[in-house]
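Dear U.,

For the methods section draft, I wanted the exact inputs and outputs in one place so we can describe them consistently. I've listed the two proteins in the order they'll appear in the manuscript figures. Please don't edit the token lines directly; just add comments below if something needs changing.

First protein:
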Amino acid sequence: SFLNVVIHRVPIMLEREWPAQAQEILTGRPAAPRTGLQSAGETALVQQSQVVGDPNFPRAAAAALEGLHSAFACPIIVGTAVLGIIQFFTRNIRESDPELLETMATVAGHVGQFIERRQAEEKLRRSEQELNDFFENATMGLHWVGPDGTILRANHAELEMLGYSADEYVGRNIAEFHAESQTIRDILKRL
């Protein structure tokens, strides 16, 4: 999903023009003044001292209604994908500030890293849940054994098939449950 952060909250714009224009961004139209950020792969920061008169600024009409004159934006990038844009607007006319833009590039980089970590954590959580669901709902007996042969986990089908409770089975060595315990030890050594 696309993240669009507007730091200067102007209620009228957020209720009227901003949502529609944010939707345009989601469907492919660039966010921020078009003179500086044209595509998802571009990492440019944008600062404009006059946004109202700029025909390339997609929110010029809404900015004019609210008396906003200056703006800057920086992309939140993960890899080569732009996940969002942090935008700042002010009623004052301001000239470009390279130090501010560098600071915001750093902030946006940290936000991008945070989002990337959260996405990775969510992907891992879903993957673990899918594996757990598969393991627990399998119709055949399954167990996990540690490198030392200790049974770490057994599903319901395994316990029912063998006639043990989890307390009687999990935590014990797998060799205890096989007639050929030496064969099991040899297999474990090879793993």
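Second protein (the one for the lower panel):
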Amino acid sequence: RMYEVNHIANLANASVINKFHELEMPGKIGPSFAYTPNYPIDSNPENVLAAENAEDLMANYWMDVYMWGKYPIAAMRFLEEKGWAPTIEAGDAELLESAKPDFLGINYYQTATNAFNPLNGVGAGKMNTKGKKGSSEETGVPGMYKKVENPFVERTNWDWDIDPEASAIDTLLFPTPTPIRFPFGKMGKGR
């Protein structure tokens, strides 16, 4: 259901952007996304692929639609195989491709470190909702990736990575002429 709901939100986003431009409203319009950069735990090819899988499902799935009006091919194939892909109705693809945002807002809070997750691996784990450091469980998508603790960064009491350097690195990761805006900055220890 999550992907179906997000597809409907993507259609609404495209419709609003198109209407804003059609009415020649003063100002600029664009979507915002809570982006979590995905790293591999090391250079093992299985872990590198796991990080790429996480990036495709957790970031590119949304940002590709916002910027280019298309879902990433690999992510859609995976969702179709699982029976999780959204229903694409007649006219949806054209609407998504027609929307041209003036900018993309990126809200950055934390990074995620990924490792290989076998087909019988971990699924949804317990989130830290009490602020007790170390209480989160590994979580992932079997056969795709799992989130693991990054030994090179500190973590908040909520088990979020504190990785301020990532916000500077990420401006290089988005190959688009559309301006990228970072309205939220670095993660503090207290959050």
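Candidate sentences for the figure legend, describing the second protein: The first strand starts at residue 32 and ends at 35. The CA atoms of residues 4 and 87 lie 7 Å apart.

Thanks,
Y.
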